[in-house]
Specification:
The protein has 93 residues and is mainly alpha-helical. The chain is built from three helices and no strands. The chain is rod-shaped and about 120 Å long.
Length: 93
């Protein structure tokens, strides 16, 4: 019925081997020299230009319509230099 003490010791050892180490041991810092070597290796890597798999649609450039010059609401003449227009009723006074 009962299991022997040797079998229990083997089962305990197997379970300890399967158990991951505690979290605080995973947070150990790497040495400074290792970190500097890894950084130097990363900086030497070059990025490769990978073309897109789908073609980029050509975007048609639309011309902006230029804004019309403001005009007088009464005489419909351009407002630029409007104070010199003698025919406008606004300039009569």
């Amino acid at each position: 019925m009962g299991t022997s003490n040797d079998e229990l010791q083997v089962a305990v050892k197997e379970l300890k081997d399967k158990t991951p180490p505690p979290m605080n041991t995973m947070m150990e810092k790497q040495s400074r020299s290792d970190a500097l070597e890894k950084r130097a290796a990363r900086s030497k890597l070059t990025t490769q230009n990978v073309p897109p798999t789908t073609p980029v649609h050509q975007v048609t450039t639309q011309r902006k319509k230029e804004r019309q010059a403001p005009k007088c609401s009464v005489c419909k003449q351009p407002m630029k230099g409007h104070k010199n227009v003698a025919d406008c009723p606004k300039n009569q006074s």
